[in-house]
């Protein structure tokens, strides 16, 4: 990752929700899947998204390589001229006005590179040099950045507006501005699926949300409508009648394609598996020191019955068997596009894909019905025991190769680091991509800060526990006195599958005796799996700059009502 951006993300506390994957994204595969619909607006959107992502990096980069005091004396949102507030992209009488045609003519370094935002015209020429997204910026120079503001939430930060206005050179002709008006553009999120109101959003565009812990432990199988949602970009609309899944094997010329109906002709296989985001419980790690990523609570996890075709059966038809030695990885490519118009991508080791006991499936049903759009309709790869990021949704292509996926999400995200590594020293090439997740547990009831009634000298506590790699939960320990004494929880629901194919979580509960003199207690919970891995006590020793693998003891402080 470019060292300039390492510094930027370390120094921007106000941009914690911004995912640097928007700035530097790699293609999942060398081939670019063109959408030949001839739609001019569709092309405009792709170009604008590419440009907006790169431009964001320009603003942030410039902000910190210049002297902030000299650059910004005070927030432009508070500045006034003759009593009139000056805001980003608002018409300014002290600047010249340019037509859209003039802006279009400024698209190279020789002619200067201009862009527009609302009624503003900006010259970004001096910031192309040395910026990692420079080539992408040149692809879209002379256009509006407004579509970008729709895609990513970074525009809500005042600092970005401040930087934008320091590059201001003029106004856009108001007739031309109406032509580019945001109201006349297609919002890529306009056709998103409806979501249940019980889901608590961590971000809206793209939509990411978790279920309240109180509801999470009510069912062993999480209802589809209440399953946590992790999207990186707008949910694609896919016509199942034209849908095809490509299967390609490195160094083999033949590419196989399957329609959904053809996939359903393979033997059907159903598994019960828990999927968890790598950032689950990140909000607790943030209390030690800020990290970059969505502020997930303990609800970025869910369990479902997944039905589909075994991946090993499909790969066998493509000539890949479990005795393959040269090829090492299976790459997955989604049909959702990233900021450079490439697909989301990830990969898993080939041994996991071809192992009969690996239970990797190309799922087309979730809890007995077609997979909902938010969860990958019409086909999602389910890799049980593996981090959610590798369970690629809206699956469009499978590529068996000697190397793992080159996508940003495989190479420069979803990796763990030592607590001593920060954004100045991080080297993503030195850490392996997360696959199996460590053992974890969480208290679902009561919640932090709750006032709970003591009934007959006891309080009731409920929660979940899970471990990656197919390990079974063998024990959950709970304490209310800082670990001086422990009690073992009861298992309310647990899958009967033996390790190492125990893919689902365990729901637990316990009645804990409390002293009548206590008005407040802090409940701790920790789980142990069938390999006798157990959770670490605190987050200080497992802190990492991305806030992943957040599996320390879960601690909840509550008030007691006797």
Automatic annotation (TrEMBL):
Record localization: Mitochondrion intermembrane space
Transmembrane stretches, start-end: 43-64
SMART domains: Cyt-b5
One GO CC annotation: mitochondrial intermembrane space
PANTHER family cross-referenced by the UniProt entry: SULFITE OXIDASE, MITOCHONDRIAL, SULFITE REDUCTASE
Pathway the protein acts in: Energy metabolism; sulfur metabolism; Sulfur metabolism
Principal cellular location given in the protein's record: mitochondrion
UniProt KW keywords: Heme, Iron, Membrane, Metal-binding, Mitochondrion, Molybdenum, Oxidoreductase, Transmembrane, Transmembrane helix
Domain of life the protein comes from: Eukaryota
Record-annotated Cytochrome b5 heme-binding domain positions: 95-173
Species assigned in the record: Sitophilus oryzae (Rice weevil)
GO molecular function annotations of the record: heme binding; molybdenum ion binding; molybdopterin cofactor binding; sulfite oxidase activity
Record EC number: 1.8.3.1
Protein name, UniProt field: Sulfite oxidase
InterPro entries xref list: Cyt_B5-like_heme/steroid-bd (IPR001199), Cyt_B5-like_heme/steroid_sf (IPR036400), Cyt_B5_heme-BS (IPR018506), Ig_E-set (IPR014756), MoCF_OxRdtse_dimer (IPR005066), Mopterin_OxRdtase_euk (IPR008335), OxRdtase_Mopterin-bd_dom (IPR000572), OxRdtase_Mopterin-bd_sf (IPR036374)
SUPFAM superfamilies assigned: Cytochrome b5-like heme/steroid binding domain, E set domains, Oxidoreductase molybdopterin-binding domain
Required cofactor(s): Mo-molybdopterin; heme b
A GO BP annotation: sulfur compound metabolic process
């Amino acid at each position: 990752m470019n060292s300039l951006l390492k510094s930027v993300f370390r120094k921007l506390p106000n941009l914690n929700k911004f995912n640097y994957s928007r700035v530097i994204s790699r293609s999942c595969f060398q081939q670019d899947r063109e959408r030949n619909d001839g739609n001019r607006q569709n092309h405009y959107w792709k170009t604008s998204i590419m440009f907006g992502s790169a431009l964001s990096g320009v603003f942030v980069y410039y902000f910190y390589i210049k002297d902030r005091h000299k650059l910004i004396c005070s927030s432009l949102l508070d500045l006034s001229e003759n009593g009139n507030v000056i805001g980003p992209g608002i018409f300014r009488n002290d600047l010249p006005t340019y037509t859209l045609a003039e802006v279009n003519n400024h698209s190279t370094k020789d002619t200067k590179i201009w862009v527009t935002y609302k009624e503003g015209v900006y010259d970004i020429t001096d910031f192309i040099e040395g910026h990692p997204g420079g080539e992408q910026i040149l692809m879209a120079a002379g256009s509006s950045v407004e579509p970008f503001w729709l895609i990513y939430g970074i525009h809500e930060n005042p600092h970005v507006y401040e930087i934008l206005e320091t590059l201001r050179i003029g106004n856009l002709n108001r007739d031309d501005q109406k032509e580019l008006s945001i109201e006349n553009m297609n919002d890529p999120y306009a056709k998103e699926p409806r979501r249940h109101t019980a889901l608590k959003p961590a971000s809206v565009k793209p939509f990411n949300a978790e279920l309240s812990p109180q509801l999470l432990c009510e069912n062993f199988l999480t209802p589809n409508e209440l399953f946590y949602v992790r999207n990186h970009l707008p949910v694609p609309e896919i016509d199942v009648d034209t849908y095809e899944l490509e299967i390609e094997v490195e160094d083999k010329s033949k590419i196989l394609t399957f329609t959904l109906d053809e996939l359903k002709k393979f033997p059907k296989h159903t598994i019960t598996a828990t999927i968890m985001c790598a950032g689950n419980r990140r909000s607790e790690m943030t209390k030690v020191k800020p990290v970059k990523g969505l502020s997930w609570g303990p609800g970025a996890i869910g369990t479902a019955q997944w039905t589909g075709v075994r991946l090993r059966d499909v790969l066998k038809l493509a000539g890949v068997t479990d005795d393959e030695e040269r090829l090492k990885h299976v790459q997955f490519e989604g049909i959702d596009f990233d900021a450079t118009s490439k697909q989301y991508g990830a990969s898993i080791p080939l041994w996991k894909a071809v192992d009969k006991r690996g239970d990797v499936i190309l799922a087309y049903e979730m809890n007995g019905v077609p997979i909902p759009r938010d969860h990958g309709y019409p086909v999602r790869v389910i890799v049980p025991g593996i981090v959610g990021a590798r369970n690629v949704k809206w699956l469009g292509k499978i590529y068996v190769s000697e190397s793992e996926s080159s996508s940003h999400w495989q190479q420069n995200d979803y990796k763990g680091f030592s607590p001593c590594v920060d954004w100045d020293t991080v080297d993503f090439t030195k850490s392996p991509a997360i696959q199996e997740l460590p053992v974890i547990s969480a208290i679902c009831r009561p919640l932090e800060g709750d006032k709970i009634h003591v009934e007959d000298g006891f309080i009731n506590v409920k929660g979940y526990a899970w471990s990656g790699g197919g390990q079974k939960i063998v024990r959950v320990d709970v304490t209310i006195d800082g670990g001086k004494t422990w009690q073992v929880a009861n298992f309310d629901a647990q899958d009967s599958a033996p390790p190492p194919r125990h893919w689902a979580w365990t729901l637990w509960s316990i009645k804990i005796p409390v002293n009548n003199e206590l008005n407040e207690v802090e409940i701790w919970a920790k789980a142990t799996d069938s390999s006798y891995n157990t959770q670490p006590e605190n987050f200080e020793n497992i802190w990492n700059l991305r806030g992943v693998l957040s599996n320390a003891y879960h601690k909840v402080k509550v008030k007691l009502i006797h």
